[in-house]
Amino acid sequence: MDNVSTAVPRPIYRVGSTTIQKIWETDLNGMTFGQLFPGFGERTREHHPDWFADGTCDAQGHVFMSVHSWLVRHGGQIILVDAGAGNDKRRPQQSVLDGLTNPFLERLRAAGVAPEDVDVVLVTHIHSDHVGWNTRLQDGRWVPTFPNAQIVVSDLEYAYGLALTRGDEDAIRGARDRAGLGQPIRTPVSGTFADSILPLDPASVLRIAIDRPEVLPGIRFLPTPGHSIDHASIELTSDGETAIFPGDVLHHPVEVYDPDLVSVFCEFPEASRSARRRLLDHAVTTGSTLFSSHFPCSSVGHIARTAEGFEWQFFRES
Questions:
Q1: 23 φ/ψ angles, rounded to the nearest 5 degrees
Q2: What is the largest CA-CA distance in the chain?
Q3: Beta strands of the chain (E only): which ranges?
Q4: How far is 11 from 301, CA to CA, in rounded Å?
Q5: Is 7 within a domain?
Q6: Strand pairing partners for 71?
Q7: What is the CATH number for 130?
Q8: Distance between CA 140 and CA 190 in Å, rounded?
Q9: Beta strands 120-122 and 150-154: pairing type?
């Protein structure tokens, strides 16, 4: 368990002239590998001990994961990549995220950023642990946490979330047809769109086609659908160096070694496998540093190609 003080900022990483810092929210350490990845082989840890670095699981096979946002200072702007789970959100389907009261905003301030300082929030996908801090509870209603920020999100993700929230079956079918991924095996956690996206001023929400060239100078969204209907990873380039924020293409380093694993949270399993393999290859080809959404420890590292596939190497926290 990570017990970092709210007053101690995390290490600052540099990608060219851009700085990136983790704003930790909470840990998710209760699931076993078999619960997180239903296809996980019982003897995988025995046969491949090198896939499981210290700090990524315990001896009983419980997975260690983190929920956090990435604070990015790039091109004179203050950017958050994803917005965590949020406080006071009712998530009966996800007891570990239900009614949280974490000092996330205090940690953000300790890194030198007040909520009103945030210029842009880049959303990889509209799931409960990635958009929660878009809003906060004030006098019994949800209000924007980052009042001056533009929230950038996939137009298809937005349309699908809205259709599900309204129970509009025609719009739901239309969104799924538009995605072309077939029928999902699950849908996003109910209530997420209603409390973390709908309360935002529509003028503050930029709904984009994921395959557009750039959303900001040096920043583009990479299409990686599967975990959600239009999931996107985010690529940032600065002074010839590249960072990738893979979102939930990857939940744990074991997926780097076995990309065919699919998490219990993925909506379109086959598409998620394809997206993972594409992203791993792209990360190696570009020599990118990965800033993961859920890996424990530093959550930062590199992917290398091996004779068997790929491997992961953490950056250490100083």
A1: -110, 100
A2: 57
A3: 12-15, 18-28, 65-74, 77-81, 120-122, 135-138, 141-144, 150-154, 205-208, 219-223, 232-238, 241-245, 289-291, 300-305, 310-314
A4: 13
A5: no
A6: 21, 80
A7: 3.60.15.10
A8: 19
A9: parallel
- The verdict on residue 5 lying in a domain is no
Our count of domains for the chain comes to: 1
| Within-domain flag for 277 | yes
How sure is the predictor about 6, in pLDDT bands with cuts at 50, 70 and 90?
A: low
Q: What are the residues facing 80 on neighbouring strands?
A: 71, 121
Is 136 among the domain residues?
A: yes
Nearest to 263 by CA among 228, 311, 232, 297: 228
pLDDT digits 0-9 by tens, 52-107? 999 999 999 999 999 999 999 999 999 999 999 999 999 999 999 999 999 999 99
- What phi and psi, each to the nearest 5 degrees, are found at residue 74? -145, 125
Q: Is 220 helix (H, G, I), strand (E, B) or coil?
A: strand
Block residue for tokens 């109910």:
190
Amino acid sitting at position 41: G
CB-based contact 272:227 (threshold 8 Å): yes
Compute CA distances 46 → 29, 41, 59, 80, whole Å. Answer: 20, 10, 11, 38
Q: How far apart are CA 190 and CA 75, in angstroms?
A: 36
Residue 165's domain spans which residues? 12-314
